[in-house]
Task: inverse folding
DNA sequence: CGACTTTGACCCGCGC
DNA sequence: GCGCGGGTCAAAGTCG
């Protein structure tokens, strides 16, 4: 099945109605608003510990600092900055859903009370430090929980890739349209 | 050879 | 203070 680069939720069966509202790539539902719809996570027997996933947590600044020792000291004095976080569930055989962005995996941890590990990904765009966590639910192994942290400050690469031929055509047609 | 994944070690916050 | 759990780092390995 060819995943849709624009609407990643369409390439996966949405596991819960609220999950659709929380799709971060849905252009009609910006993340700022989606963050208000996190209540779907609470009170459900999911096998996933939602609280740490959804609650805002301190985020370090100055991640481009060179040197591990410098990094350690910066972590000790990290500022408390709350970033938008939003989670949604998809029913998919793949752990990582294709949301159109490129991600680099930087860690994986076994999670308590869960037989599946949690994976940590970072957006590969150099100016974008959006992160996401991916974890498969214990009670329903066909459901994958994806938690995004932050908002992309660059266009979706796959979307731009798909649109570029179209944009070229528009540019070619622009002078013609001006004549009409 | 660059981009990416794997994985053990490390760090930090929090509860006891 | 100590141990635990979660998050991140970074070296080594893999892949195209």
Result:
């Amino acid at each position: 099945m060819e995943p849709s680069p624009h609407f990643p939720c369409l390439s996966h069966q949405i596991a819960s109605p609220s999950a659709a509202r929380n799709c971060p790539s849905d252009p009609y539902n910006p993340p700022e608003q989606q963050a208000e719809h996190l209540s779907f996570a609470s009170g459900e027997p999911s096998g996933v510990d939602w609280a740490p996933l959804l609650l805002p947590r301190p985020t370090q600044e100055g991640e481009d600092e060179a040197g591990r020792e410098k990094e350690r000291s910066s972590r000790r004095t990290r500022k408390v900055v709350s970033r938008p976080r939003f989670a949604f569930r998809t029913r998919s055989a793949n752990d990582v859903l294709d949301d159109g962005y490129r991600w680099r995996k930087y860690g994986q941890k076994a999670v308590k009370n869960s037989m599946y590990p949690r994976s940590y990904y970072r957006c590969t765009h150099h100016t974008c430090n959006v992160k996401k966590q991916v974890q498969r639910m214990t009670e329903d192994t066909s459901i994958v929980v994806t938690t995004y942290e932050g908002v992309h400050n660059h266009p979706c690469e796959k979307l731009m890739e798909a649109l570029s031929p179209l944009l070229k055509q528009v540019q070619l047609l622009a002078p013609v349209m001006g004549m009409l």
Notes: Chain A has five helices and six strands. Helices of chain A lie at 17-21, 31-34, 50-54, 68-76, 157-179. The two ends of chain A are 42 Å apart (CA to CA). Strands of chain A lie at 13-14, 85-91, 103-110, 117-123, 131-136, 143-149.
